[in-house]
Amino acid sequence: MHTAHFLLSSPRLDTLPPLGLPEIAFVGRSNAGKSTAINTLTQQKRLAFASKTPGRTQHINLFGVGKGQVDDAVLADLPGYGYAAVPREAKLRWQRVMGNYLMTREQLSGVVLMCDPRLGMTELDEVLLEVIRPRVEQGLNFLVLLTKADKLTRAEANKALSIARLQAGGGEVRLFSALKKQGVDEAAEIIWRWTHPDVG
Ligand SMILES: Nc1nc2c(ncn2[C@@H]2O[C@H](COP(=O)(O)OP(=O)(O)OP(=O)(O)O)[C@@H](O)[C@H]2O)c(=O)[nH]1
Ligand SMILES: [Mg+2]
């Protein structure tokens, strides 16, 4: 994944071209660590813009990954939800764009839900789970990454895992820390499997 490079950025769905490659979407609350996870997985410092300020990512940003010059998969960094300071209009617009993306994006091959276990699954996470459930039932890959695991004790981590497994509806759940590089190889491997279903 370290060959990852920026492809394009779009505020809307209708200007997002079909790329014909398996796409993995990173979704979750604002500040959950989506952009940081993409940087960590691709071993790049500032591929996706991460920030202390929630609401940093405001477009659908696509990154190409593959061997050498040829992309064989796309990572999509999506804007986070649940950030209180965003005006209501913008929030609703984004919920529509994201909902439509998740429901209709044809080449979507997997969704990674980034969830800060100290906050747990919020109401908006539950809405997202409902939105993608029909596609997950039809075979869409789904992984929950419990982020910032470096902030949890072992007991807290185990408890967060059990709770998330109940909520994930059969999807896989893993602990993840960009800071401590925990769960990074495993997440990369899962995504690789999703995007190369014919191999091994
Ligand atoms: N301790 C710790 N902090 C992290 C980790 N991952 C991300 N962060 C911090 O969390 C904050 C938010 O990270 P981002 O990656 O920008 O979050 P995002 O989900 O992309 O946020 P939006 O773009 O607003 O949706 C930053 O200050 C990161 O440094 C982690 O594994 N451990
Ligand atoms: Mg972001």
TrEMBL record:
| Key words, A-Z | Cell cycle, Cell division, GTP-binding, Magnesium, Metal-binding, Nucleotide-binding, Septation
Instruction: State the InterPro entries in the record.
Output: G_ENGB_dom, GTP-bd, GTP-bd_ribosome_bio_YsxC, P-loop_NTPase
Query: Which prosthetic group or cofactor does it need?
Result: Mg(2+)
The biological processes this protein is annotated with in GO are: division septum assembly
This protein's GO CC annotations = cytosol
Alphabetized GO MF terms: GTP binding; metal ion binding
> A Pfam family name for this chain?
MMR_HSR1
Record keywords: GTP-binding included?
A: yes
Domain EngB-type G positions: 20-197
What NCBIfam families would the database entry show? GTPase_YsxC (TIGR03598)
**What is the recorded function of this protein according to its Swiss-Prot or TrEMBL entry?**
Necessary for normal cell division and for the maintenance of normal septation.
Task: Please state which protein family the record places this protein in.
Answer: Belongs to the TRAFAC class TrmE-Era-EngA-EngB-Septin-like GTPase superfamily. EngB GTPase family.
The record, for HAMAP family, names: GTPase_EngB (MF_00321)
Would you tell me the protein name for this molecule?
Probable GTP-binding protein EngB
Q: What organism does the record attribute this protein to?
A: Pseudacidovorax intermedius
